[in-house]
Each structure stands twice: as structure tokens, then as C-alpha cells.
């Protein structure tokens, strides 16, 4: 029989004290933890609820950055004017994340900590240069999101550590698009996010592309970014990025789609994400 303890933490220090040296698991929204319990991935441990910690639930800005607490829900992202204005890719990802019930409970920190290759918030955060802030009882550190994921279901997080917040850069020209069996109600087949800046001549002066569900972890598409830099984002350029994009991805066959299908549609998704970033339509 599985045995679980439960403790409701009301401060970050209390949560970290409970995590330190314990066989414990963090619970915020619980949308991933409960399936893990049912499948046997989590057994005989203490569940530490962090949902009521106010210092983990906020969205704030400074001159060029937005900071998001780890316990901010997907619904809060959808409703935030700051996110809509300065992090449009993340707003768009939140709008197609899941059904309202899940969006009301699932958190940004939880979506990242689960380390699903198809985590919807990850590509959007990657193109906004996200930095993950992590704390244990005796130390704290920050990790670029591009270095946070190690493998499917695995991150740099240690068992005694907690994500406290995520910092992202402001960029009004960003976009996110998702391909799924039922748009917002299913796990992604492919996701793509972009952040693009043009110079006065209409040439791409900076470009960030991120992809989900086409590699073991969410990724920045370095070959695609290099291909696009210093080019005009016209139809010829966007149609010619297929080779570069396929160098970035390593898709697999699964119950949602074949690897070959993902290779075919990923460049199309990148093209649409770029158009969303630049023109707000694709």
C-alpha cells in the first residue's frame, strides 16, 4: 500500500525546511503530481503543498524584465496585461494550454519542473531569455532556461530545491503557435515560438526560435536562428528554412504523430510563429 504524508507550507523557508533531507515532493497545481502517484512514479513520500505561499505568486515588471512567481497559474498568465503587452508568445501559449479547469490550477513552475518535451510554456519562455531562480534551504542559484532541462522528465533541480521565480526579457515582437489534435485540449504534436527584431531596412537583426515536442527537451533552434539572421523575413526566406530547422530537431514516433510528420510540419510552424511575432497573424 502506498503511504503519503501531506504538509501545507505557508512560507518559502517552511517549504524548504520540509524538503531538506526528506523524501518529499512539491505540489502546487497537482496536475502532474496526481498522475505520477497513480502510475507509481511517486510512492511513500511526503507531499509539500506550496500553493498558498504568497511570495511565489506574483507578476511584476522593471525597466526591461518581467518576473513571474513559480506558483502563478496559466489562467493568471492569460489575464495579465503585462504578459499580453510584453510577452505575447507566453500569452498565446497560455491561451491554448488546456481546458479552464487545468489552467486554473497548473502553474508556470510546475510546467517547467515536469520537464515534458511538449511543455507549452517552455518555448515561449525560451525566446524571452528566461532565467529560472532556484532556492534550497542554504543556497540559491539562477539557471538559464536553455540549460534547465536535461532529459524528458529531468531538470537540474535537486530534491531539496524549489523554483521560486522566472525572469524574462520584454519583447513585444514574439509569437507562439501550437499544433495538437484538439488545439488547447491535448498534448502538443509540435510547438514553435519566435522573437524577432527587424532593423530599419526590414532585415532580421535578432532572432530567437524555440521548439517543443520535437526533441528530448524543449530547445532553442540554433541552426534556424543563424539561417534567418540578416535576411528579410519574406516568403522566399521562410520557405527556405526547412533544411536548417531539420538540423535542430530529433523527433520521435509516438501516439500523437510520427517523426516524419513532425519533420514536415515543424518548418511550417516556425514560419507561422515568425509571422505571428512580426504581423500578429499567420
What report would you give on this structure?
The protein has 282 residues and is α+β, with helices and mostly antiparallel strands. The chain folds into three domains: 5-49, Uridine Diphospho-n-acetylenolpyruvylglucosamine Reductase, domain 2; 54-169, Uridine Diphospho-n-acetylenolpyruvylglucosamine Reductase, domain 3 (2-Layer Sandwich), CATH 3.30.465.10; 174-279, 2-Layer Sandwich (Enolase-like, domain 1). The protein has 13 helices and 14 strands. It has helices spanning 12-19, 33-39, 74-79, 81-86, 88-95, 100-105, 108-113, 121-126, 145-148, 222-228, 235-239, 242-248, 259-279, and strands at 5-8, 24-27, 46-49, 59-61, 65-69, 131-135, 140-144, 149-151, 154-155, 162-169, 174-179, 190-198, 204-212, 219-220. Strands 4-5-10-6-7 form a five-stranded antiparallel beta sheet. A hairpin with a 4-residue loop joins strand 6 and strand 7. Helix 10 runs antiparallel to helix 12 (242-248).
* Average pLDDT: 92
The CATH first-level class of the largest domain comes to Alpha Beta
The stretches of 5 or more residues where confidence is low (pLDDT under 50) are none
The CATH architecture designation of the largest domain is: 2-Layer Sandwich
Distance between the termini: 52 Å
Amino acid at each position: 500500500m502506498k503511504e503519503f504524508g501531506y504538509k501545507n507550507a505557508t512560507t518559502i523557508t517552511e517549504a524548504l525546511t520540509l524538503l531538506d533531507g526528506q523524501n518529499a515532493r512539491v505540489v502546487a497545481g497537482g496536475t502532474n503530481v496526481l498522475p505520477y502517484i497513480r502510475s507509481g512514479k511517486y510512492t511513500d513520500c511526503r507531499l509539500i503543498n506550496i500553493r498558498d505561499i504568497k511570495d511565489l505568486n506574483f507578476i511584476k515588471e522593471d525597466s526591461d524584465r518581467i518576473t513571474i512567481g513559480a506558483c502563478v497559474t496559466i489562467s493568471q498568465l492569460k489575464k495579465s496585461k503585462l504578459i499580453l503587452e510584453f510577452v505575447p508568445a507566453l500569452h498565446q501559449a497560455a491561451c491554448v494550454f488546456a481546458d479552464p479547469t487545468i489552467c486554473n490550477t497548473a502553474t508556470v513552475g510546475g510546467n517547467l519542473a515536469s520537464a515534458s518535451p511538449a511543455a507549452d510554456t517552455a518555448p515561449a519562455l525560451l525566446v524571452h531569455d528566461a532565467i529560472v531562480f532556484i532556492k534550497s534551504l542554504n543556497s540559491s542559484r539562477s539557471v538559464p532556461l536553455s540549460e534547465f532541462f536535461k532529459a524528458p522528465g529531468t531538470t537540474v533541480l535537486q530534491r531539496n530545491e524549489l523554483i521560486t521565480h522566472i525572469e524574462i526579457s520584454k519583447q513585444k515582437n514574439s509569437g507562439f503557435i501550437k499544433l495538437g489534435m484538439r488545439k488547447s485540449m491535448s498534448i502538443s504534436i509540435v510547438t514553435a515560438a519566435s522573437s524577432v527584431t527587424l532593423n530599419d531596412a526590414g532585415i532580421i537583426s535578432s532572432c530567437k526560435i524555440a521548439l517543443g515536442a520535437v526533441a528530448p527537451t524543449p530547445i532553442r533552434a540554433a541552426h534556424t536562428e543563424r539561417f534567418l539572421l540578416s535576411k528579410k523575413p519574406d516568403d522566399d526566406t521562410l520557405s527556405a528554412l526547412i533544411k536548417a530547422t531539420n538540423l535542430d530537431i530529433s523527433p520521435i514516433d509516438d501516439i500523437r504523430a510520427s517523426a516524419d510528420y513532425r519533420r514536415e510540419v515543424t518548418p511550417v510552424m516556425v514560419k507561422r510563429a515568425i509571422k505571428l511575432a512580426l504581423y500578429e497573424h499567420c
